[in-house]
């Protein structure tokens, strides 16, 4: 796609589309393919499946990211979009490797976009986010918060551009953030930033900058004013050392996960209680009645660390194997079928978030998502993904995992991603 600027207007040709798109912040008009048709913005053009680079001009500064196009994309039907925000000392490619959002996108036919933060990370090719009102320690990012760009403006420009340049449903644009990326996503929504119908957070949910009142830390109420109630799914590990579940830690963190969830229930006007249920060390909770149809769901892992959770085989696989054997006449077992668990504790965050996003207007179907197909002899529950070599992450490759690579890549993006 050839781009040209003329009097503050972005033009594009219908004849080609390269991997890079440029957004003009403040541009008043975006023209579709110049064929004279009145089709929706971004529709009518095919794009090669896979990962592509993308750049945005934000106030004269070029910002980077990548996007993933599923093989089912035709440019004719409007599809959803999920933005994926990387942690500190990581990058967009590494984040897709960690989260598997591109795999979820391929399976479910939507576009995934990963933006790149403006702060330099510890290793070459890694970055962090210039989260408003946050002084990041040099032990996390060598640049602290010096020299960072306006991330709020960047995210807003990126969301608007993606809506214009691709054939997407503007009502089905969602976001997910890990660690520093989730803190950035929290800040964007708290600032009144619009465009996301739902958001997911892994080891990262915030509800405003931390303030101490009478010796107790909590979110600054004046620092979080969402434009509207937003559906949220958040994940946390009780053994998280970087962003502690109970609070404390770095200056940017301080208040705990429960406090953040409680503040969001206030912001979203939720009623009732979260009705927590625990299976295999995983506690699932949901506030299903909030303003504007929003919902707030959470998963807390008793043995969870700061790493992105990954699923392992569940007891359902063992039961399924036993049933198959009995049906084949291999053996016959007389036993009472076990009670159905309260929810499936075999949690893959990206797949679970997608269920949550896509069923936002339905009754709670999230907790009964089908478990991954795995070997019958493996343990039940959820394990934690281990770190990978930095170079492998920078190259966007996956780490060794007991899970099939098309199901779960256990990459951490880059080591020390916070």
UniProtKB/TrEMBL annotation:
Keywords: Carbohydrate metabolism, Hydrolase, Polysaccharide degradation, Secreted, Signal, Xylan degradation. Coiled coil: none annotated. GO terms for cellular component: extracellular region. Residues 396-418 are annotated as: Disordered. Its main location: secreted. It is found in: Secreted. GO terms for biological process: xylan catabolic process. GO terms for molecular function: feruloyl esterase activity. InterPro entries: AB_hydrolase_fold, FaeB/C/D. PANTHER family: FERULOYL ESTERASE C-RELATED, PTHR38050. This is Polyhydroxybutyrate depolymerase. It comes from Neorhizobium alkalisoli.
């Amino acid at each position: 796609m050839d781009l040209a600027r003329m009097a503050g207007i972005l033009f594009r040709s219908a004849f080609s589309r390269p991997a890079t798109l440029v957004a003009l912040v403040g541009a008043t008009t975006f023209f579709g393919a110049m064929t004279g048709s009145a089709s929706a913005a971004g529709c009518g053009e095919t794009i090669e499946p896979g990962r592509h680079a993308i750049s945005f001009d934000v106030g004269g500064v070029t910002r980077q990211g990548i996007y993933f196009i599923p093989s089912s994309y035709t440019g004719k039907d409007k599809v959803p979009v999920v933005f994926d925000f990387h942690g500190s000392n990581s990058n967009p490619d590494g984040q897709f490797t960690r989260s598997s959002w591109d795999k979820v996108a391929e399976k479910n036919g939507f576009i995934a976009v990963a933006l790149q933060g403006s702060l330099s990370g510890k290793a070459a090719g890694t970055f962090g986010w210039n989260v408003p009102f946050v002084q990041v320690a040099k032990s996390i990012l060598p640049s602290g918060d010096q020299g960072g760009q306006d991330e709020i403006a960047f995210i807003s420009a990126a969301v608007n551009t993606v809506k214009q340049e691709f054939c997407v449903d503007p009502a089905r644009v969602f976001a997910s953030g890990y660690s520093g990326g989730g803190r950035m996503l929290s800040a964007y929504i708290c600032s009144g930033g619009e465009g996301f119908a739902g958001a997911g957070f892994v080891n990262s949910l915030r509800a405003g900058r931390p303030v101490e009142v009478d010796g107790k830390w909590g979110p600054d109420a004046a620092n979080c004013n969402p434009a509207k109630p937003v559906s949220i799914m958040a994940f946390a590990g009780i053994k998280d050392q970087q962003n502690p579940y109970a609070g404390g830690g770095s200056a940017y963190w301080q208040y705990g996960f429960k406090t953040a969830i409680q503040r969001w229930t206030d912001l979203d006007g939720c009623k009732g209680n979260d009705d927590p249920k625990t299976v295999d060390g995983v506690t699932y909770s949901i506030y299903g009645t909030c303003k504007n149809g929003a919902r707030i769901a959470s998963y807390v892992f008793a043995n969870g660390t700061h790493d992105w959770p990954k699923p392992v085989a569940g007891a359902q696989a063992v039961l399924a194997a036993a049933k198959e054997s009995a049906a084949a006449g291999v053996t016959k077992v007389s036993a009472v079928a076990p009670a159905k668990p309260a929810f499936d504790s075999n949690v893959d965050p990206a797949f679970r978030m997608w269920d949550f996003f896509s069923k936002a207007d339905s009754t709670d179907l999230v907790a009964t998502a089908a478990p991954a197909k795995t070997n019958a002899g493996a343990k039940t529950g959820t394990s934690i993904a281990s770190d990978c070599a930095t170079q492998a992450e920078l190259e966007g490759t996956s780490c060794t995992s007991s899970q099939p690579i098309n199901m779960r890549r256990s990459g951490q993006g880059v080591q020390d991603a916070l």
